[in-house]
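tool_call: predict_structure(chain=1)
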Amino acid sequence: GPGEGRALAVKMDDGDKRGLEPLVVDLLERFGWLTGDELVPLEPYRERTLRNRAGLDVGRTVVER
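tool_result:
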């Protein structure tokens, strides 16, 4: 049934949630909990562009394996 007894807990030590979405998408794929077409709508969450107060791109958040 739903969940199949699986759980995922993540602790972010940097004090911000900016890496949470890329990490969760990566873990869902890595554990095989989501595959193929299920991952397609989550692609925009794999990377996050970081912008400064002036709106300039200053980096990006990605998961490195």
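agent: The longest strand covers residues 57-61. Proceeding to next step.
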